[in-house]
Amino acid sequence: MAAYRTFLGTRVWPGNYLKLYFPFIITGTTSFFLFANVHTKLMNAPDGKWEHMMRNVSESTAAQKNKNDAVDYYFKKDKH
User: Fold this and answer.
1) What is the DSSP string of 9-36?
2) What torsion do the CA atoms of 38, 43, 48, 51 make, to the nearest 10 degrees?
């Protein structure tokens, strides 16, 4: 019986894993740092758009509800 390579009691096959996973390591690392950079720039933006996004969305939603009510009223009035 041949002696197998083992690591922590598990059989290990000799192979070049760096060659297989190199593209994933590079793209994952690049993506992480790019997203972190974009996040930092957005959080430090002078207009504060990113920080007030939820308030802006809720205000836009309220304005859109008013527009929808006006359209419904207009078409309802037209039918009668």
Assistant:
1) TEE-----HHHHHHHHHHHHHHHHHHHH
2) 110
- Please, how many CA atoms are within 13 Å of residue 47, restricted to the half-sphere of its CB? 5
Contact status, residue 41 vs residue 34, Cβ threshold 8 Å: no
How many residues are there in the chain? 80
Rounded CA separation 63/3 (Å): 74
Check if the beta carbon of residue 43 is closer than 8 Å to that of residue 37. Answer: no
HSE, side-chain direction, 13 A CA sphere, residue 18:
0
pLDDT tens for each residue of the chain, 80 residues long: 567 778 787 777 777 888 888 999 999 999 999 999 998 888 888 887 777 777 777 788 888 888 888 888 888 766 65
